[in-house]
Amino acid sequence: MPESPAAMAVKVNDFQFLLSPEEISQANFLRKSDTEFHLIQGNRSVSVRLINMDATGKKMTLEVDGESFQVEIRDVLEQMLDKLGFSAVSTKQIKDIKAPMPGLVLDIHVTAGQEVAEGDKILILEAMKMENSLMIHTNAKIKSVLVKKGQAVEKNQVLVELE
After folding, report:
1. Nearest to 142 by CA among 124, 126, 125, 158
2. Mind listing the domains of the chain with CATH numbers?
3. Torsions phi, psi for 55 (to 5 deg)
4. Strands 115-116 and 140-145: what pairing?
5. pTM attached to this predicted model
6. Ramachandran class of 96: left when φ > 0, alpha when ψ lies in -120 to 50, beta otherwise
7. Which secondary structure element, helix H or strand E, spans residue 21, and what is its range?
8. What distance in Å separates the CA atoms of residue 72 and residue 7, rounded to the nearest whole number?
9. Which three-class secondary structure state does DSSP give residue 82?
10. What value does the mean pLDDT take over residues 75-91?
């Protein structure tokens, strides 16, 4: 299919399709509920169920006639940013956890080699007489813990290195 500047890129499992605005407008979507739809395109009619969707609404798992599909939708701007290499920013790996302010390490909840998930508590830092729990914002593996319980730290000091 020739690339159109206004085409939507739709990735389904490992296959990518470009859909023009005309092709999209020719499809007939009937909403049966918040998670169930009926799609009529040309001579084909299918039932579609939304299994899950990310917060952006751009990545989802759909069930079509009993078979699951991973779907990702990229609009024109996202496709252009991908071509310019700016999409790499969203996949930037965090390499370390730094102290957001000077303080005292009260407790450490991780060890070297440990797998952590987004939202896990890394350590507790006391600053200005307040306890601050430092959480991780991505899934990662702890490479090393560079501080000890009771240690004073400076702002931006690396506390934990990630693999």
Report:
1. 158
2. 8-91 (no CATH), 96-162 (2.40.50.100)
3. -65, -25
4. antiparallel
5. 0.46
6. beta
7. helix 21-26
8. 14
9. helix
10. 68
Residue where the block lists tokens 């991973």: 70
First to last CA, the chain: 41
Count the alpha carbons within 13 Å of 58 in the hemisphere toward its beta carbon.
9
CA–CA separation, 147 and 97 (whole Å): 11
| Distance (Å) of CA 37 to CA 29, 82, 100 | 7, 30, 47
Per-residue pLDDT tens digits for 106-162 = 999 999 999 998 888 899 989 877 888 888 878 889 999 999 999 999 988 999 999
CA distances from 27 to 41, 42, 100 (A): 5, 8, 51
Alpha carbons 38 and 4: distance in angstroms, whole number = 27
Residue with tokens 């690396």: 158
DSSP letter at 78? H
Q: Which residue shows structure tokens 């729990």?
A: 133
Measured CA to CA in angstroms, residue 11 lies from 24, 33, 59, 95 at distances of 15, 24, 9, 30
Give the sheet arrangement for strand 96-98, strand by strand: 96-98, 158-162, 140-145, 115-116
CA distance 123 to 96: 13
The amino acid at 27:
A
